[in-house]
Amino acid sequence: MDRADAPSTPSKSSNTRLQTEGIELMQKPAPSDFPVHELIRERWSPRAFADKPVPQNVLRSIFEAARWAPSSYNEQPWAYLVATRDEQDSFQKILSVLVEFNADWAKGAPVLALAVAELAFAHNHAPNRNAYYDTGAASALLSVEATAHGLSVHQMAGFDPEKARQVFGIPAGWEAIAAVAIGYPGDPASLPQHLKDRETAPRTRKAISEFVMSGHWGHTAPFARK
């Protein structure tokens, strides 16, 4: 049976721990109200990463997933600046544009990236108001593919876009819109207490009845009611 057809998961978060190579890892499956695919349930954004490199063939697959995201006019207005921890110069450059709070934990990830969006259509140079949306869609598919490989992806708004432009020579018409940490989930005990508390806190989301509407703003769609 496809997991998308499986019964919904319990209403309370059920954090679980795995032992891998002597390291205690944590999974935080989403406590969904309705059935969703297991990759959606398992996707989450940790700050603790295992000290384990991501193979190049896996990196190729997750960015291939981003390649096949939908976009307005098939414009594909995204680009990614990527660095593994083996590429120390590039890795440090990405760390340098993160706010201190994020840099403190992201330095433990084996891969860092910046998602960059082209803000005008290439064919006519008209503003592309969907560029952010489409680049977000690419990053969402990247995250799902990463989950299928046992990886976690933590996307960040806390970085300096203008510093990123200067550090990486991002051309005019393009804008860095998110930073991304990629790696295998690690042991929350490796984090400072204030981050460990966040790592182990229950996952919460708005109910779909709060944001799925029909007929008029604020009117919950009939199917979205429990």
What features would you describe in this structure?
With 226 residues, the protein is of the alpha+beta class. It is 30% helix and 18% strand. The chain contains 7 helices and 6 strands. The strands form 2 sheets. Strands 3-4-6-5 form a 4-stranded antiparallel β-sheet, sandwiched between helices. The chain has a two-stranded antiparallel ribbon with strand order 1-2. A hairpin with a 2-residue loop joins strand 1 and strand 2. Helix 2 (56-67) runs antiparallel to helix 5 (131-148). The longest helix has 18 residues, at 131-148. It starts with 15 loop residues before the first strand and ends in a 26-residue tail after the last helix.
- Portion of residues in beta strands equals 15-25%
Low-confidence stretches: 1-24
Question: Helices and strands, in N-to-C order?
Answer: EEHHEHHEHEHEH
Mean pLDDT: 89
Gyration radius over CA: 19 Å
Overall spatial form:
globular
Helical residue percent band: 25-40%
**Number of H/I helices:** 7
The profile of the biggest β sheet is:
4 strands, antiparallel
Q: Helix/strand-derived class? A: alpha+beta
Report the count of strand segments.
Answer: 6
Intertermini distance: 24 Å
Major sheet strand order? 3-4-6-5
Task: Give the key terms.
two-stranded antiparallel ribbon; 226 residues; alpha+beta; single chain; disordered N terminus; four-stranded antiparallel β-sheet
Describe the structure concisely.
This protein has helices at 38-42, 56-67, 88-97, 100-106, 131-148, 161-168, 193-200; strands spanning 16-20, 23-27, 78-84, 111-118, 152-156, 174-183. It is an alpha+beta fold and 226 residues long. Strands 3-4-6-5 form a 4-stranded antiparallel sheet, with helices on both faces.
